[in-house]
């Protein structure tokens, strides 16, 4: 386990660190609940750098990225001051910039970052005219959930500025070890949760369940809840109640009944 994150493939951790060491923007691609944000946090910790986060949405605008002007009092006089946003702050101080669900933002919002993400590593702040050169430690991570409601395909000019890595749900020994390290429970209950998680992933691959139903985040939630209640109820709260499709819901209930 690396800084609280377990990787599926042995070389992946060092490969991703190498990408960031070379100051290449890194794009993490994978389903919801696969641990992309946790991985970003772990990578930031490994470089001993703070992480400035941006959660993208259709309402994201330039001010949310770069900052805004405000009026402050200095020696009894009102003056206009610029408050740095997460991008400007990360560039100036050498932090890691993490852009979560980058494909949720409106396509016209993000081109302002093109010069930040390529070899120039600079930004001309449209609100102040200041030209900002990135600190040598400045690094960029972004994450996307492909094909989810509310997302749009990334602009090719933007995507081309990233090196991409696919982050899938953990399987096999890596999943079993993650479950065992997450909560202190007897082996029988851990085996039940491992078998259910594995079966959910199998049904996703066969196209019978939506990808998010096999979320590792939800499985961990269920496991932690099961330390305080029967495992059936824990699974109901953490997984079943979030499924809208009746056929998918029935299938998951059948899988739970088979293993519990």
UniProtKB/TrEMBL annotation:
Stored SMART domains: AAA
SUPFAM superfamilies membership: P-loop containing nucleoside triphosphate hydrolases
GO molecular function: ATP binding; ATP hydrolysis activity
CDD domains the record matches: AAA
Transmembrane feature ranges: none
Domain AAA+ ATPase: residue ranges: 22-173
Domain of life: Bacteria
Family: Belongs to the CbbQ/NirQ/NorQ/GpvN family.
Designated name of the protein: MoxR family ATPase
Species of provenance: Savagea serpentis
Lineage: Bacteria, Bacillati, Bacillota, Bacilli, Bacillales
